[in-house]
Amino acid sequence: MAKSYQICCPKCNNHQNFYRYGKDKYGNQKYLCRVCGHQFAPDAHADKPGKPRVRPYPTCPVCGKAMFLHHDHKYYSNYQCCDKKCGHSIFVPKPAAVTAPSMSKLSGKTDFKRMRYPVHVILTAISMFYLGKNSFRNIALILRTVMNIKVSHTTISNWCTKFAPLFQNIALELMPTLNFNSDEWHADETVVKIRGVKYYLWLIVDSETRFALGFHLSRHRDSPQAFSLLNSVKHLGKPGAVVTDRYSAYKVPVKSVLGVKHIRVQSFRDDITNNLIECFNKQFKAWYKTKQGFASFDSANNLISVFLFFYNFVRPHSALDGLTPAQVAGLNLSARSKRKLFLVA
């Protein structure tokens, strides 16, 4: 029985003008479209004699034609459309080549088991350290004067450092429930010192919720560090644009990893500025100055991670009507859930 189906060109959807163009190596009838010149065999997919053709390179998102590899870099590949009239180019990241950010390399305890002091004493000391500008010696003095609890300042320092994985696990549990699909994300970097050596802290903040999405502590200030930062937060949401300063290290990572509009602030008189994250840097530096630098990379990484947790989930912001950034992003927990997750806001 003859097959009764309408022949259609898979490229231009032509239904009328065709030429019979011989047969392929599997014996299937081939046709040549008289409109676009495309050759195809309608029966090839029905018989499935071999593997279908898969393009090794992506398809042009503008005209739909094939693309070729224009430049191959270590962290991304640049593809360009084969059609000279189109000439569109895209940047495709290489996830295997991008290094993990420092915020994923925390070390310490994930619970309060086998601790000499009660949990409420430990949480009080940690909150006094991250919510204020107190030093470890001042916190030990306050605990001894107000609560009649004798704790060494070294012990308090260990508490503030070793429980970073615990708070990080709480943040990872709550962040998928929050909404960060805002108009803009702001990215910037600032300088911190570890044993007198300059390190760069890469940060990215959501404009509508003031939520610090992630950080990356690195010795270098170049494009691979921006790749690590943006690749770690790309699953959290889709912003309308990413706002940065004029530093060129963000140009390719924003295009290839997030694929959104990149706004580079040219002047303080522009309508869109990067003052939001500069304000965050000011709050961070006010807390950081009391430390007079960090002792090691691991302790700095842990301390910054817990500072961001308290900034996002615990500390109320006057600019947000007394709410935390997590609450503005949609976090609504019961009193029992707050006690379980050691949250008080």
UniProtKB/TrEMBL annotation:
Gene3D superfamilies: Ribonuclease H-like superfamily/Ribonuclease H
UniProtKB keywords: DNA recombination, DNA-binding, Transposition
Coiled coil: none
Record domain Integrase catalytic: where: 172-333
The protein's role, per its UniProt record: Involved in the transposition of the insertion sequence.
PANTHER family assigned: BLL1675 PROTEIN
Name recorded for this polypeptide: IS6 family transposase
